[in-house]
Write a structure and sequence with these properties.
Layout: H1 6-12, H2 18-25, E1 32-34, E2 40-42, E3 56-62, H3 72-85, E4 90-94, H4 99-103, E5 111-112, E6 115-118, H5 120-124, H6 130-150, E7 157-162, E8 166-168, E9 178-180, E10 191-193, E11 195-197, H7 202-209, H8 213-222, E12 224-228, E13 233-235, H9 242-249, E14 256-260, E15 265-268, H10 283-292, E16 295-299, H11 304-319, E17 325-330, H12 332-338, H13 351-371, E18 376-381, H14 388-399, E19 405-408, H15 410-413, H16 419-431, H17 446-458, E20 462-465, H18 467-478, E21 486-489, E22 509-518, E23 523-528, E24 547-548, E25 554-555
Parallel strand pairs: 3-16, 3-17, 4-15, 4-16, 8-11, 17-18, 18-19, 20-22, 21-23
Antiparallel strand pairs: 1-2, 2-14, 5-6, 6-14, 7-12, 9-10, 12-13, 14-15, 22-23, 24-25
Length: 558
């Protein structure tokens, strides 16, 4: 049987005018800024309309990712469509895709099959220009920093203690470590420098955590770009850059409204990676979706150890949000991979490998239920090769923990295939006990918070700080940042900091080699293992297959 590709399915969709989608969601046309017929930005004043109450917040997360795929965004889209088929006003709140993965290996973030957001090509490429604006604001700050040093360095910035990097929204390993300012006295001050991918920029984090233009400007002004010769932090406010940066972001900060293939309203806004950043869409988009819907379905990047932990410990803490339920997405194929099955053999029934891999899923479920105190359901993203015996084994192991399993068939059936999952989500939201709590308290100290994440979320033995990281922890505490939450930068492929340790390893320690404060975002980034803030392209990039036909139609985009 021949299947249509994701892009072929998306291009065959008869999209509704975005004004119709907005009207159905309760957004006034005066609050829309149209980007053609199928995309619009929504004025933040829509958050403050008369009456109404916030809907229930449903977080979709997943097991530890594998090359076999899990389908977290696809499940999120299908769940929202399924909720609407069951008579509930559901609204999506998702992240914008980065161009790096689109042209690299991971792919986009618009869902798949018959559970997608559209216009898919626009969303996966330039969309409404938000990422370009974020990159421009980041690089404006870098330019003003280097210009200040060139023009006399009145603030006494030590060029060897600059922490601010330029950024570009592309996987470009060549830019990780560079030397710039060469060419003579008038060409700048020579120094070591580097680039981050835009989704790892602190400006992206600030953008997603800001609650208003005023809050955005205040957060931007607090960004630390480096330190003086006597180790005092220098901020964007000191460089008088925050106003101009805000000017570049004043339109971008308005949430983007699109639709699913079935016409469900979807806000897609912001896109920090969850392995090197905090992995959640913007607070403003989430709040708007909650205000307009009975149910807001959102997702957080990679597995529950990364995206969900940061969603719950950083975003929910800062925004005062309490999820009503959590969906943990898994596939039989991925669990067999965690159990040692080769990728080429994942379509063959293998109960032994599945049983060896199931502890990965069960640890994520325990984390959601026991560490964070939230009700959850396991969504098995079903593949045609899954056997009844394999599905029964997953259900048996989850039921032993008191968690139900719902089959998700949204890739092939859209919202209809998500109705079983939607029914369980509704039940959890309306009847399940909710004892939401965080994985750590802010006042416990930097090293203690790191240790709590490793033990309570990863299932490890504890954390080890390198001598340099220990010194950084002391310095950050001395500067008043000791009570900030932690944003772990860790491989997505393992609970540990070793991507080769699959399944649910035990007894491991996580090594933190660098600590950096993001004072504008309001958290401390802990870099572990060999994690990079600028990814590279694979041997055969996805970009090689992408093309445009003579009539302007994009092909090869998934």
């Amino acid at each position: 049987m021949a299947y249509l590709s994701d892009i072929e399915i998306a291009q065959a969709c008869q999209m509704k005018d975005i004004r119709e989608i907005a009207k159905a969601a309760g957004v006034q046309e005066d609050d829309l800024e149209l980007y053609g017929r199928y995309k619009a930005k929504v004025n933040p004043r829509a958050l403050h309309g008369e009456g109404g109450r916030d809907g229930k917040l449903v977080l979709v997360t997943a097991i530890t990712p594998t090359p076999a795929g899990e389908g977290k965004t696809t499940t999120s889209v299908g769940l929202a469509d399924g909720l609407r088929r069951m008579g509930k006003r559901a609204v999506l709140a998702l992240r914008e895709p980065s161009l790096g993965p689109v042209f690299g290996v991971k792919g986009g973030a618009a869902g798949g099959g018959y559970a997608q957001v559209v216009p898919m090509e626009d969303i996966n490429l330039h969309f409404t220009g938000d990422f370009h604006a974020i990159g421009a604001a980041n690089n404006l700050l870098a330019a003003m920093l280097d210009n200040h040093i060139q023009q006399g360095n009145a603030l006494g910035i030590d060029v060897k203690k600059i922490t601010w990097k330029r950024c570009v929204d592309m996987n470009d390993r060549q830019l990780r470590n560079i030397v710039d300012g060469l060419g003579g006295r008038m060409q700048g001050v020579p120094r070591e420098d580097g680039f981050d991918i835009t989704v790892a920029s602190e400006v992206m984090a600030v953008f997603c955590l800001a609650t208003s233009v005023a809050d955005l400007k205040a957060r931007l002004s607090r960004i630390i770009v480096g330190y003086t010769y006597d180790d005092k932090p220098v901020t964007a406010g000191d460089l008088k850059a925050a106003g101009a940066m805000t000017a570049l972001l004043k339109d971008a900060i308005k949430p983007n409204l699109v639709q699913t293939l079935e016409g469900t309203p979807a806000f897609i806004h912001g896109g920090p990676f969850a392995n090197i950043a905090h992995g959640c869409n913007s607070i403003m988009a989430t709040r708007m979706a909650m205000r307009l819907g009975e149910y807001c379905v959102t997702e957080a990047g990679f597995g529950a150890d990364l995206g969900a932990e940061k969603f719950l410990d950083i975003k929910c803490r800062m925004a005062g949000l309490t999820p009503s339920a959590v969906v943990v997405v898994a596939t039989v194929r991925a669990l067999k991979h965690h159990g040692g099955a080769a990728k080429a053999e994942l379509g063959t029934e293998n109960l032994a490998a599945l049983e060896r891999g199931l502890p990965n899923l069960l640890r994520h479920v325990r984390t959601i239920r026991e560490t964070f105190g939230l009700p959850c359901v396991v969504a098995v993203n079903r593949f045609p090769t899954d056997t009844q015996a394999e599905l029964a084994l997953v259900e048996e192991k989850c039921r032993a923990l008191g968690v139900n399993v719902a089959l998700s068939e949204v890739w092939g059936k859209g919202g209809e295939g998500g109705m079983a999952l939607a029914g369980e989500v509704i039940r959890l939201c309306e009847t399940a006990e909710n004892h939401f709590r965080h994985a750590y308290e802010l006042e416990t100290g930097i090293e203690q918070k790191l240790d709590a994440i490793v033990k309570n979320v990863y299932g490890g033995a504890g954390v080890t700080l390198t001598p340099g990281a220990k010194k950084q922890a002391q310095q950050l505490a001395g500067l008043g940042f000791g009570d900030y939450p932690i944003c772990m930068a860790k491989t997505q492929y393992s609970f540990s900091d070793d991507p080769k340790l699959l399944g649910a390893p035990e007894g491991f320690t996580v090594t933190v080699r660098n600590l950096k404060v993001c004072a504008g975002a309001g958290f401390i980034v802990a870099l572990t293992g060999d994690i990079m803030t600028m990814p590279g392209l694979p041997k055969v990039p996805a970009a090689e297959k992408i093309d445009v036909t003579d009539d302007g139609r994009i092909v090869g985009l998934f």
